[in-house]
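Bumping my old thread because nobody answered last time. Still need a sequence for this structure:
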Protein backbone atom coordinates (compact mmCIF):
# COMPACT_ATOMS: atom_id res chain seq x y z
CA UNK A 1 0.00 0.00 0.00
CA UNK A 2 1.19 3.48 -0.87
CA UNK A 3 -1.45 5.61 0.87
CA UNK A 4 -4.88 5.59 2.47
CA UNK A 5 -7.52 8.29 2.08
CA UNK A 6 -10.28 8.59 4.65
CA UNK A 7 -13.26 10.90 4.52
CA UNK A 8 -13.82 11.00 0.77
CA UNK A 9 -12.55 13.78 -1.52
CA UNK A 10 -12.42 16.25 1.37
CA UNK A 11 -10.27 13.88 3.41
CA UNK A 12 -6.50 13.69 3.56
CA UNK A 13 -4.05 11.18 2.13
CA UNK A 14 -2.19 9.35 4.86
CA UNK A 15 1.15 7.87 3.81
CA UNK A 16 2.47 4.60 5.17
CA UNK A 17 4.20 6.46 8.01
CA UNK A 18 0.77 7.47 9.42
CA UNK A 19 -0.94 4.06 9.11
CA UNK A 20 -0.78 3.66 12.89
CA UNK A 21 -3.22 6.58 13.39
CA UNK A 22 -6.20 5.43 15.50
CA UNK A 23 -9.49 5.66 13.59
CA UNK A 24 -11.14 8.39 15.65
CA UNK A 25 -11.98 12.05 15.15
CA UNK A 26 -9.37 13.50 17.51
CA UNK A 27 -6.48 11.39 16.21
CA UNK A 28 -7.26 12.28 12.59
CA UNK A 29 -7.77 15.97 13.39
CA UNK A 30 -4.38 16.04 15.15
CA UNK A 31 -2.80 14.93 11.85
CA UNK A 32 -4.84 17.33 9.66
CA UNK A 33 -7.17 14.58 8.49
CA UNK A 34 -10.85 13.89 8.88
CA UNK A 35 -13.02 10.83 8.98
CA UNK A 36 -15.99 12.45 7.24
CA UNK A 37 -18.52 9.80 6.18
CA UNK A 38 -16.09 7.03 7.13
CA UNK A 39 -15.18 5.97 3.62
CA UNK A 40 -11.69 4.57 3.10
CA UNK A 41 -9.78 4.33 -0.18
CA UNK A 42 -6.53 2.35 -0.31
CA UNK A 43 -3.94 3.19 -2.97
CA UNK A 44 -1.37 0.63 -4.08
CA UNK A 45 2.02 1.31 -5.65
CA UNK A 46 0.58 1.54 -9.17
CA UNK A 47 -1.44 4.71 -8.45
CA UNK A 48 -0.12 8.12 -9.52
CA UNK A 49 -0.60 10.09 -6.30
CA UNK A 50 0.07 13.42 -8.06
CA UNK A 51 -2.90 12.79 -10.36
CA UNK A 52 -5.06 11.82 -7.38
CA UNK A 53 -4.12 14.98 -5.49
CA UNK A 54 -4.89 17.17 -8.50
CA UNK A 55 -8.26 15.53 -9.13
CA UNK A 56 -9.21 15.73 -5.44
CA UNK A 57 -8.20 19.39 -5.37
CA UNK A 58 -10.52 20.07 -8.30
CA UNK A 59 -13.37 18.13 -6.66
CA UNK A 60 -12.78 19.89 -3.33
CA UNK A 61 -12.86 23.30 -5.03
CA UNK A 62 -16.07 22.43 -6.90
CA UNK A 63 -17.79 21.19 -3.74
CA UNK A 64 -16.86 24.29 -1.75
CA UNK A 65 -18.00 26.55 -4.59
CA UNK A 66 -21.32 24.71 -4.85
CA UNK A 67 -21.85 24.93 -1.10
CA UNK A 68 -21.25 28.69 -1.16
CA UNK A 69 -22.86 29.38 -4.57
CA UNK A 70 -19.59 30.69 -6.03
CA UNK A 71 -18.66 30.52 -9.72
CA UNK A 72 -16.72 27.42 -10.80
CA UNK A 73 -13.48 28.96 -12.01
CA UNK A 74 -11.03 26.09 -11.51
CA UNK A 75 -12.14 23.70 -14.25
CA UNK A 76 -10.02 25.29 -17.05
CA UNK A 77 -6.96 24.73 -14.86
CA UNK A 78 -7.49 20.96 -15.02
CA UNK A 79 -6.22 20.87 -18.61
CA UNK A 80 -3.11 22.87 -17.67
CA UNK A 81 -2.36 20.62 -14.69
CA UNK A 82 -2.89 17.50 -16.81
CA UNK A 83 -0.42 18.90 -19.36
CA UNK A 84 2.18 19.63 -16.65
CA UNK A 85 1.80 16.18 -15.08
CA UNK A 86 2.14 14.55 -18.50
CA UNK A 87 5.56 16.18 -18.86
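Sorry it took so long. Here it is:
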Amino acid sequence: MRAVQCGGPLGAYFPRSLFDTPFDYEAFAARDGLIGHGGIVIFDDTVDMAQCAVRDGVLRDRKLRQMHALPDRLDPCVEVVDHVLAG
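The beta strands are 3-6, 12-15, 40-43. Let me know if any region looks off to you.
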